[in-house]
Amino acid sequence: MSQEDMLVALQREVESLKNKMSELEKRAGAADDYIAISNLQRTYGYYVDKGQWDDAADLFAENGTLEIAGRGVYKGQDRVRQYMNNFPKYERGVLFNHMQLQPVITINAESGTAKGRWRTFIQIATLDVEARWGEATYENEYVKVDGIWRIAKLHGFITFYSEYDRGWDKGGVKLVRSFKGLEPDAPSTYNYEAWPEAFIPPYHYPNPVTGRRNNGSV
């Protein structure tokens, strides 16, 4: 092999290594983003568990939105904070667990945005008053601001509430559609009812095998 041929071969090898390195950097960045978004959502859950409403609101982008249980859309971090502080304080006799489970996260690294579907398992109780099981499916959006992921949209579809002592085989508790004195900034995106009605929140992602879109039952 001539010296010129050797130089060409070396240049090709260097270019191939550069491409591989670039691909590895992208994959490493995607893994870091996935972990950061997972931690963000789980952190939200821990704050909600303990009634740390201001800490939870701090996780939202300045123009972030919140929509839960068909109560309408609250726009902007200040309104999200106002909504959250409407809930009980964490104190003796109050249980408000919202476990964040089963994430499916899709990330657009170029735009610095992402979407995530989560399930939250809920335990709510007030001592000597009520005790309930619940579940919600989240379809959320996230945005990277100054290198940090924040919640751009939190949409919690409550799929069931039921009384602990009766069990869900006896039916569910109707969703609370509004809070007195706390009107939303926009109406609900979807009109639905929880268990025992049949309802599937829409998926933000296609079937990973077939590529088909599934819009749920909304």
Structural key phrases:
coiled coil; single chain; NTF2-like_dom_sf; alpha+beta; 6 strands; Nuclear transport factor 2 family protein; Nuclear Transport Factor 2, Chain: A; elongated; 3 helices; six-stranded mixed beta sheet; 218 residues
Strand fraction equals: 25-35%
- CATH class descriptor: Alpha Beta
Strand order, sheet with most strands: 2-1-6-5-4-3
Radius of gyration, taken over Cα atoms and rounded to an integer in Å: 22 Å
**Roughly how much helix do the residues carry, as a percent range?**
25-40%
The tally of beta strands, per DSSP, is: 6
Could you characterize what this model shows?
With about 220 residues, the protein is of the alpha+beta class. It has one domain (about 5-170): Roll (Nuclear Transport Factor 2, Chain: A), CATH 3.10.450.50. It has three helices and six strands. The protein has helices at about 5-50, 55, 75-85; strands at about 60-70, 75, 95-110, 115-125, 130-145, 150-165. The chain has a six-stranded mixed beta sheet. Strand 1 (about 60-70) and strand 2 form a beta hairpin. The longest helix has about 45 residues, at about 5-50. The mean pLDDT is about 90.
Summary?
By secondary structure, the protein is of the alpha+beta class. The chain contains three helices and six strands; from the N terminus they run H-H-E-E-H-E-E-E-E.
List the helices and strands and how they pair.
Elements: H1 3-49, H2 53-57, E1 60-68, E2 73-75, H3 77-84, E3 94-108, E4 113-126, E5 130-145, E6 148-163
Parallel strand pairs: 1-6
Antiparallel strand pairs: 1-2, 3-4, 4-5, 5-6
